[in-house]
Amino acid sequence: MVRALPVALMLALAAAGTASASVTVTTNAQRPSLRVDARGYAEVSWTARGVRRTLLIPPRGRALPGGRLSGRDVSRPASGVRIPFARVVRRTPDGRYWGLQAWRLVGDGAVELRFSRWRGAPTALELTTEPTGGTELLRGRATFHGRPVSGYWRTLEGSRIRHAATFECFACLGKPGWSWFGGKRTSVDGRFASTVAPRARARRYRATIVGPNIGSTLAPDASAVAPSSLAP
To answer: In a 10 Å sphere around its CB, with 0-12 CB exposed, 13-18 middle and 19+ buried, how is residue 42 labelled?
Structure first.
């Protein structure tokens, strides 16, 4: 995975100006950090196998594995915005936010470190539960600045994947903590609905979705938790 990472990153970020979303930088990263210069170049660094690594992400175009900022860091910690699974959130003088989030996109996959840059409010995700046929129905909607999150995002290799909410149940499936149990594509209006399998019934549920891309904006990923509609 480490040897293949540079090519995968370049493919993913080369598409960032057209049809991608927030960008996966690496997996199972330790001590991630983020710096941004006045030109809008972002330097992501992390530790893997005891070695400090970097990725330079330009405002547009391909990323440079091993690249470093040529100018000083003008970003500051951002306290006015919250995003789920945040490892780093910073803000630059032009009002943009820059974030690193870490979460599992698939149930048995590695924890991915994901980069985003945006203005204004982050991606929003709504989630509710309701009884249905002895189990529950999860309903929700994902939006970014009032626009639905739908269509596609790209994998590290550049493959298109439809936007979908991933679902987890808490203290279920015979495991502690959160356990992944499925997902559902969003419709053109950003909505989704899915029935919980009886084996995945729990006291609370979590939905998470990859943020969309709009121009050079790489919106952050969003998540929401809802209590069971059947809990006493």
So the answer is: buried
Alpha-carbon distances, residue 142 vs 68, 104, 182, 223 (angstroms): 34, 18, 17, 9
- Please classify residue 80 by burial: count the beta carbons closer than 10 Å to its beta carbon, then call 0-12 exposed, 13-18 middle and 19+ buried: exposed
CATH 2.60.40 domain range(s) in the chain: 124-227
Q: In degrees, to the nearest 5, what angle opens at C-alpha 13 toward C-alphas 63 and 61?
A: 65
**Separation of CA 136 from chain center:** 26
Who's near 120: CB < 8 A, 6+ residues apart?
145
**CA gap 150, 141 in Å, rounded:** 10
> What is the CATH topology of the domain spanning 124-227?
Immunoglobulin-like (2.60.40)
Q: Tell me the three state secondary structure of residue 70.
A: coil
Q: What is the pLDDT of residues 65-99, one digit of tens each?
A: 999 999 999 999 998 899 999 999 999 999 999 99
**E-only strand ranges, 40-92:** 42-48, 51-57, 64-65, 76-77, 86-91
Distance (Å, rounded) from C-alpha 93 to C-alpha 96?
A: 7
Which residue would you say has higher pLDDT here, 107 or 43? 43
Identity of the amino acid at 187: S
Distances in Å between the Cα of 44 and the Cα atoms of 2, 55, 97, 129 are: 15, 5, 14, 38
HEC string of 101-130 equals EEECCCCCCCCEEEEEEEECCCCEEEEEEE
